[in-house]
Write a structure and sequence with these properties.
Layout lengths: L2 E2 L23 H14 L13 H10 L2 E3 L10 E7 L4 E4 L5 E4 L4 E8 L2 H12 L5 E6 L3 H9 L3 E2 L8 E2 L4 E7 L5 E6 L10 E3 L2 E3 L3 H4 L2 E3 L6 H8 L2 H4 L5 E2 L10 E8 L15 H6 L9 E2 L1 H15 L5 E10 L4 E6 L14 E9 L4 E6 L5 E4 L7 E3 L5 E5 L5 E9 L2 H8 L2 E2 L1 E2 L7
Parallel strand pairs: 6-7
Antiparallel strand pairs: 1-3, 2-3, 3-6, 4-5, 7-11, 8-9, 10-11, 12-13, 14-23, 14-26, 15-16, 16-17, 16-18, 18-25, 19-24, 20-23, 20-25, 21-22, 21-24, 22-27
Helix pairs in contact: 1-2, 6-9
């Protein structure tokens, strides 16, 4: 078993031999004070039930010697806490791209942080900085205070003057994990840990990802056949609302998100699911479907030359799924989510790139996407243009207009030309407002 780190002092938590078994002999009320610190620290973040730091987590981490606590306030609650351990074996970390990096034995690995204010944050900083060896810290990418704390860890001021600039020797972003809840956890590592395989260095300049992997939402530099888009937008099969199948997703609101397949994994246009990205229960109930390959439905032939002219304008090695995706007017919505279960999605050669081509839309149909640094971008996709949406990253859309929104969504199998197209795309504008779809 990995042992607790040498930082800080043993966590002083009240013992209670009558506590339930899961509490490992710790006082449940005191465990509650610890979890309250984490809840307040994480307030406002997008989190799922498995992202929350519970009393069960606290009891387990205390038993293992991993949970470190700061001084208590007047109410008996700790002012800071961190979950940290010294690895005694290799620890794999999976990135949102599907790649993996490995933390070596002897690395101080901090997986959770919580603090009440700047003074408490500085206390954690001092504790971690005292470790004589490699350090890796996970933090919420959308928590500016956590990212600020990590960026100051092991920072070097070469000027020797107050306010001097931080240079080499500090922590750097190595990986981002996108969770099922669409929350994002960044892994920041010290300079004595090797770069991950997907990072880039040009001289002393370090970038954690190639340019196309940083895109979330962008307009593509493509000239599309406008007459074909016009013809497709008025085609009876495109405009027949009753033909569309409900997209059974927890992100869709009130069955307002529907779709049809021109190409998919089934012969029927209404079967839009991809077996490999479905959940475990679905896979266990549909084992015979897991080896299905993409194929055209009769809808592709029905839509005829107009659809083929648009598809021919996309630089790629081929197509996986091709769908018509409809969002109902008057508030049709797909809430924030991330499609992390698709093993083929990506922005490199051989991966599947999602291209949106609006056929029918309005100025009140708004997309949002969240970058790996926690920033949010907003875009209104215009009819006649093509857009890239990285579905692995958090995204959302709402149709606040009075007309339906129908996109031709093409899952392109990327080649070198596709990657070059992404590298030349125009990213969506950053959204500084507090409004979230």
């Amino acid at each position: 078993m990995e042992h607790g780190s040498s930082i800080g002092t043993p966590a002083g938590v009240e013992r209670d031999e009558s506590a339930p078994g899961w509490a490992s002999g710790y006082n449940v009320a005191d465990l509650g004070r610890i979890t309250t610190l984490f809840e307040r620290h994480d307030e406002g973040l997008v989190r799922g039930p498995f992202d929350r730091y519970s009393a069960h987590h606290a009891a387990t981490d205390l038993r293992n010697g991993w949970l470190k606590l700061g001084p208590r306030d007047d109410d008996g609650a700790p002012v800071w806490a961190c979950v940290v351990r010294e690895l005694n074996r290799s620890q794999p970390v999976r990135d949102f791209t599907g790649g993996r990096m490995t933390l070596s034995p002897g690395t101080l690995y901090c997986t959770r942080l919580a603090f009440t204010d700047e003074i408490a944050a500085v206390s954690i900083l001092g504790q971690l900085s005292a470790y004589n060896g490699p350090i890796a810290v996970e933090c919420w990418q959308e928590h500016p205070d956590e990212r600020a704390l990590v960026s100051r860890l092991r920072a070097i001021d070469v000027t020797g003057q107050p306010g001097g600039e931080r240079v080499d020797g500090g922590m750097r972003l190595a990986a981002v994990k996108v969770m099922a809840s669409s929350s994002m956890r960044g892994l920041w590592v010290s300079h004595d840990i090797d770069d991950p395989p997907w990072a880039r260095r040009v001289g002393e300049r370090y970038t954690p990802y190639p340019k196309q992997e940083l895109l979330g939402l962008a307009q593509l530099p493509l000239a599309l056949p406008q007459n074909a888009i016009l013809a497709l937008s008025s085609h009876p099969s495109v405009c027949d609302e009753s033909a569309y199948a409900v997209n059974h997703s927890s992100s869709g609101k009130d069955d307002t998100w529907t779709a049809l397949a021109l190409r998919g994994f089934y012969d029927e246009p209404g079967r839009i699911e991809k077996p490999s990205e479905m959940n475990r229960r679905w896979k266990s109930e549909h084992q015979k479907d897991l080896d299905r390959e993409p194929r055209d439905t009769h809808l592709r032939a029905t839509l005829g030359p107009a659809a083929e002219q648009i598809l021919a304008a996309l630089p790629c090695a081929g197509f996986e799924r091709i769908r018509l995706m409809r969002l109902a007017p008057g508030g049709g919505q797909v809430s924030r989510h991330a499609d992390i279960t698709d093993p083929d999605a990506g922005a490199s050669e051989g991966k599947v790139v999602s291209v949106h081509i609006p056929l029918i839309s309005n100025e009140h149909c708004v997309f949002q996407s969240w970058g790996l640094d926690g920033s949010r971008s907003t875009l209104v996709m215009k009819v006649g243009s093509a857009y890239y949406l990285d579905t692995r990253k958090p995204h959302a859309v709402v149709n606040g207009g009075n007309s339906e929104r129908i996109h031709l969504v093409v899952d392109c199998i990327a080649n070198a030309k596709t990657v070059e197209m992404l590298r030349n795309a125009t990213p969506a504008s950053l959204d500084e407002s507090n409004e979230m779809l």
